Description:
Blueprint (H helix, E strand, L loop, with lengths): L5 H7 L3 H18 L5 H18 L3 H23 L14 H25 L6 H19 L5 H18 L3 H32 L5
Amino acid sequence: MDSLPAPLRELLGTTIWEAVGLVTAITYLVLATRRSQWCWLHAFISSACYTVVMWRAGLVMDTLLSVFYIVMAGYGYWQWRRGQSDDGELWVVSWSWPQHLLALTAVVVVSAINVWILKTHVSVARSPWLDSLVTWGSVLTTFMVTRRVIENWLYWIVVDGVAAYLYFTRGLKATAVLFFIYVLMVIYGYFDWRKRGKREALRTAGVSA
């Protein structure tokens, strides 16, 4: 194995927790872009695996974030079941600019408070600013997914891009690759949800799609 390129050796050395978390996370995102409620089952499994991975990496906030994801997997499944039309399609909504501004301001403020807590009370914490911004940005964006807000995909582009850099610097190479793949997939997810949303709007208006 020593003769292999370093990045490949690192990927092959991925723990079983990270490997299972990676596969189920990708499956979750594929199903989410298709608006399948079963995406939340894979979100649950992936989050459970990453709770272990992030704790071992010393990323305290990402560990708590994984626990949050476990809870939100159940909430998301329940919300998506309630948000279906009679023919099984998932309704999509959009936030106003004031809602976005309020949400982003809240993320920055909470992250700043979080950084202060980590620096003063958690000695094992690493990369507190990036860890906090990824965590609270992910909390907001996951909530947007459960509420079927179409702009969640645009938020994920930024959050996943920052997360990919963070995990790469913490030695989680496979997870960094996963989040880079996420960036590409969420771009597709945004355009797919927008296309489906326009088609459903036409149906609502009584126009043939």
